[in-house]
Write a structure and sequence with these properties.
The chain is mostly beta strands. It contains one helix and 15 strands; from the N terminus they run ββββαβββββββββββ. Strand 6 and strand 7 form a beta hairpin. This is Outer envelope protein. It comes from Actimicrobium antarcticum.
Length: 253
């Protein structure tokens, strides 16, 4: 779970409070790894659930990534210098949101190469192609937009989880640098997008009498410029830039 009071949304000038509950699964098998995450995001009424609503918006956002380890598939080592291995990553994002305007119904498929660096924990860097579409429903006009596909565009992405020795502290997070995706469904040009989300966590399992690496808490920060490709210098305004500190707590099964 994580919570913060200064989330932002395009075309909305308010600071928004959100509580985010997530279910995260990471596993490995003979030929690679799986990552699956579901976020359930609950906004306060500064991001209303509908036109004239006093309730906050709700959103579900799902991410899945599979990385095929080429060394495990081919039997050939790709270790060289700081490189631990090479992989092929594929997966998808999708979301659904109820709010007072856009009501996103995003679908996105991703695929591309990944470099796995030789560090404590992990640090993976990938260059992925994105196939993204959306079919929003406008609560003001009550018009559903036919599913619209953006231009295929690249994303440079990194994900890391690095323990700080045996201290119980770790540095974790991801960074996405996403190229513009052509024009959006309303004919406006999209902008280059930067989304960096990082946290410093500490293992408190021994403090609460739990098994090691079961209970973690920490501080998280997200910087998101041109959110969802909306140009923050245009009509989307300052809501298209997020500077969001959060408190984060995790329980590992």
């Amino acid at each position: 779970m994580r919570t913060g009071k200064s989330f932002s949304e395009p075309f909305n000038t308010n600071d928004i409070q959100k509580n985010i509950f997530d279910l995260n699964h990471v596993s490995g098998y003979k030929y690679g790894t799986n990552f699956f995450n579901v976020d359930f995001l609950l906004s306060n009424n500064k991001d209303p659930a509908g036109a004239g609503s006093s309730n906050g918006a709700q959103e579900v956002y799902v991410v899945y990534r599979h990385t095929l380890d080429l060394e495990k598939v081919t039997g050939q080592s790709f270790k060289y210098g700081v490189v631990r291995g090479l992989g092929i990553t594929a997966g998808f994002d999708f979301n659904t949101k109820t709010d007072a305007g856009y009501n996103s119904k995003k679908r996105m498929y991703v695929a591309g190469p990944t470099v796995m660096l030789d560090v404590p924990g992990f640090l993976n860097i990938g260059l992925l192609a994105l196939w993204e579409s959306n079919a929003p429903y406008n609560t003001f006009s009550k018009v559903s937009t036919p599913r619209y596909s953006y231009d295929v565009h690249p994303m440079l992405t990194a994900a890391w989880g690095i323990p700080l020795g045996t201290s119980g502290w770790s540095v974790e997070g991801f960074a996405n640098f996403i190229a513009a995706k052509g024009k959006n469904e309303f004919g406006a040009k999209t902008a280059v997008e930067t989304n960096i989300d990082m946290q410093v966590m500490v293992d408190l399992s021994s403090v609460v009498g739990a098994k090691p690496k079961t209970v973690k808490v920490g501080l998280e920060y997200q910087y998101w410029k041109n959110k969802f490709g909306n140009d923050s210098s245009g009509p989307a305004g300052p809501g298209a830039i997020a500077n969001t500190p959060m408190i984060r707590a995790e329980y590992h099964f």
